[in-house]
Specification:
Layout (H helix, E strand, L loop, with lengths): L13 E12 L4 E7 L12 E5 L10 E8 L3 E7 L3 H7 L6 E8 L10 E7 L3 H9 L1 H4 L3 E8 L17 E5 L6 E2 L2 H11 L4 E5 L2 H14 L3 E4 L15 E3 L7 E3 L6 E3 L12
Parallel strand pairs: 7-8, 7-11, 8-9, 9-10, 11-12
Antiparallel strand pairs: 1-2, 1-6, 2-5, 3-4, 3-6, 4-5, 12-15, 13-14
């Protein structure tokens, strides 16, 4: 079973200036950035991202990519984790400040009407899977179960986020909330209880590699959204290429050909695992 032919890059990106509507801490490391949605902006699909310019032109020249967490007619929401100086500065952006973005960019998770989907999210990898769940795509599935894993309850931000989505379950490495174990161990446990037709995943590469190995073992199609570093996000600079088994063009860009890929096309041993 394969759905590769319906993963398409239909996004028509634009360059916009948005306004910060909300910038709210979800936990010690994670925060929610809500921006005004430009009226002319193409409707983002689950898996697409925006390329955001850190508002300090004297220090940061490269944009940062962020998957869309949620979107409506008025706003676009991003889930961000504080990892370096750029995301620390963004965490302090005040309501009403302008933000420069380009998007939506990238490919999307496939539509799988009538199928049973198991989605695995780690860290900010929650964003596209959550967005898929609140969109019509998940409503067309027979079932859509989202498993979200973290090191501890603190990084799950279960008390700071409005989970407007049914079928969400949690795991923690330390057992402080939900299933005790990593997200792939949780997926195996859930699969034994109720099998599925397709697996989606997004998160750090080691997690995705383990998920790909699990999907291969159980013989289920698997689609991943990669989180590579990007510079141009237009496929020109080639800074985010990954090695694939797909035809004559073996190196593909995460920003333009992805970020969503059929996991079986990726050469996992060539992806960074740090």
């Amino acid at each position: 079973m394969t759905f590769t032919n319906i993963i398409q890059n239909n996004a028509r990106p634009g360059h916009y200036e948005c306004t910060v509507i909300e910038n709210r801490a979800l936990s010690r490391r994670y925060y929610l950035l809500v921006l005004s949605r430009p009226r002319e902006m193409t409707n983002p699909e689950p898996g697409t991202f925006v390329h955001l310019l850190v508002p300090d032109a004297n220090r940061f020249y490269l944009r940062r990519p962020f998957s869309v967490l949620d979107c409506d007619d008025e706003t676009i929401s991003l889930l961000i984790v504080e990892k370096g100086e750029g995301t620390r500065i963004m965490r302090r952006i005040e309501k009403g400040r302008p933000i420069d973005i380009v998007g939506p960019l990238g490919s999307t998770f496939p539509k799988v009407p009538g199928k049973r989907v198991l989605a695995l999210g780690g860290g900010v990898g929650l964003a596209p899977l959550y967005y898929y769940g609140v969109r019509r795509e998940a409503k067309d599935c027979e079932t859509y179960r989202l498993l979200y894993g973290a090191r501890s309850r603190e990084d799950l931000f279960v008390d700071g986020f409005d989970w407007a989505l049914d079928g969400v379950s949690f795991s923690t490495d330390d057992g402080s909330h939900g299933f005790q174990g990593n997200i792939v161990e949780f997926a195996q446990h859930e699969f034994e209880q109720s099998q599925v037709d397709v697996i989606f995943s997004c998160g750090p590469n080691p997690m995705l590699k383990a998920a790909a190995e699990f999907a291969d073992r159980v013989g289920v199609p698997h689609y991943v959204s990669l989180e590579n570093r990007m510079a141009c996000a237009l496929g020109a600079c080639r800074s985010c290429v990954v090695l694939t088994r797909n035809g004559a063009i073996r190196y593909r860009t995460v920003c333009n050909d992805g970020p969503v890929f059929d996991a079986r096309e990726l050469v996992w041993k060539e992806l960074p695992q740090a």
